Amino acid sequence: MRLLRTLPSPRRTRVRRSDRVPFLELVEPRLLLANLNMLFTVNSAADDPSGPTPGIVTLRDAINEVNNDKTDVDDNFDAITFAISSTPTISLAADLPAITRRVFIVGESPGTPLIQIDGHGVQGSGSGLTLSPGSDDSAIAGLDIYGFSKGAGVLILSSGNTIVNSHLGTDGTSTTEEPNLLGVEIIGVNPSSAPSSNKFTDCTFSGNSFAGVFMSIALSNTFTGCTFSGKSAEGVSMSHEGVSMSQANSNTFTGCTFSGNSDAGVSMSIANFNTFTGCNFTGNSADGVEMSSANSNTFTGCTFTGKSVDGVKSVDGVFMSSANSNTFTGCTFTGNPVDGVFMSSANSNTFTDCTFSENLGNSADGVFMSGAFFNRFTGCTFSGNSVDGVFMDFVFLNKFTGCTFSGNTSDGLDMSNAGFDNFPNTFTGCTFSRNLVDGVDMSSSNSNTFTGCTIAGNSNAGIEISSMSDSNVIDENYIVGTPSNGSSTQQVGILINDSISNTIGGTTSGSTTPANVIGGNNVGIEITGVKTGGNVIEGNYIGVTKDGSPIGNLYGIWIDNVPSNTIGGTAKGAGNTISGNEWAGVYIFGPDATGNLVEGNSILGRKNKRTKTDPTNPLPIGVFIQNSSSNTIGGAGAGNTIYGNNVGVYIVGTGGSATGNQVLGNFIGLSANGTSRPGNVLYGVILVNAPNNNVPQSGRSANKIVDSGIANFREYSGPIAPTTQSSSGSKAKKPAHRSIHVAHQSPQRTASHALVTVHGQKVPAGPHLKPRARVRH
After folding, report:
1. Which ranges constitute the DSSP H helices of 399-504?
2. What are the residues facing 118 on neighbouring strands?
3. For the CA atoms of the chain, what is the radius of gyration?
4. If I label 351, which of 67, 79, 455, 740 is the partner at 20 to 30 A Cα–Cα?
5. 8 CB burial (10 A radius; 0-12, 13-18, 19+)
6. Residue 281 pLDDT more than 60?
7. For the chain, what is the mean pLDDT?
């Protein structure tokens, strides 16, 4: 290689390249070396803005030579290399001239250090290197550019440029602050002439005052293996944002790291069709990614980690406001102090196979959604969050399919004002397990559907429907107290509180799946609250699976002081199978529990047949009505099948509180088709201090009561024990009956169980639930 020859003229002599230039092929391997037009070698770290010095070639001189070279044609290019014998730091005294022609600037070749360009001496808003229009397809490699406190390390106004293995905002070793205002600025005037197709590979953007990269009206730029760090390697300085994008579209980031920025790792405003693959967003003081009016962006295999190795924490993994049609696939959101993903007015976004807090747990929710519509979550996991797996507020038409909500400190899914009339949120094939309050909590949320879900082992309720949550449908789900991998028990499978017109189950014609299987809870279904009514429970298996395997609750269904609910029905498949529950299949309690209808059900004891048991203990009871009036059990052509219990139907009251109940057309002790007579152990029907109830044994609405151990029907009041003669006239052993006294607490959510003293034995009347402290932002 020939050296530059120094002449008296202020112009430098240009020398054509005749041999290989180290590292050029690494910068752009597609270019042939034959395309090298002129080579300029910088031999001095000095910078003299006043003009060239004989025998010395500075970076400023070399750029001027490139700009003045008119000999390059077609794909030819000029190159600038460095042969500085002392320190490789070039301390600028003024702005460098903008580059107006294609050039390769190579500050590193194998075995030589990076060339450093220090802008501390530059006054005003100057940038380090400026690639102006006309400099398209240039390349920069092996430069450290820092100290341009009011400008950019590299300002790009052209397209197709390549920057490789360079540091922007740090010298790589300094323990003092060396920031640029911007590491790289890519800025256009209008989309038709926007800078585009610039490439960045293995670059570090660290400690820049505002952003590592700022892009405005910039298109189709690519970043591969780059690091956008708010701090230098020694923890000095902080960038505001790793990347700031405004009207920047179709850009690509692959294998990049965004860490320790004082605001967001990436801030996107009106930035669309951008792609992030295999990127890591960790420990940014605001959000990993902040998206505002940013649409149709794609994130694949990215990690959004709240806490970096030096302890800096992000707020949200991703913050989305008016951000629509974005796609996240195989991403992980973990350990963020607020939410894994925060969505406000963010619609039609898709999350597939993502994990929210699998390890560290977000300090609030896995996903927070407010005013968000048409979003899709498929195969995602929401686990170990400090509040809820997903919180939804005023959201509609979102779909969750095959997702898991597990081990969250509050609810797996918390819904407030979510769903309305024909705008439901739907959950299909999801799992809600081992959450410390509810699997699903709906408050003022309407018309939502849950189908084919497994809801198991949550501490309070599997599903809580409360505070005027109306017209929701819970169908074909498996709702059990104990998950397959442990022994935790839910208090209630489904709790309906102050809500109307919800449907638990259904009558889907030809379905091979039962409406719901509900078992292993203290209470399978509880209906309670002042403003509750009109709920329908039909087609379910409660306390037993469809194949007959017992998974009993203590109570199958408990109607707690509320009116006008329907259990079962006369349509095909509407009747529930309520079997194997320890204390009662259906329990109706309280003076306001009126107008409830129980019809067409199979209400069976623990072993589905009469077996010997303690004759002083009435439990289990098929239907237990306590202090309630005007309810209907059965009906003409709508009777229930009730057998295998100690008592088939038990109505008890105090002071005339259980009157006007109708027990009609039921098969008590007899199978519905009349082919078997399993019976009940003690009584078919017994009324205790319950006058003026209708239990006909003849006529069109007569009950068929057979094979009761003591009596098919008895009615009595006060402390006098009933006779022991059965309805058939045969003698039965007289039990030592004592007064039957009811001592039930007023319905409220307390930690203790209410007690019923029956036949001298105190038994719980039902587990009221512990009050819960609602945790919300």
Report:
1. none
2. 91, 146
3. 38
4. 455
5. exposed
6. yes
7. 82
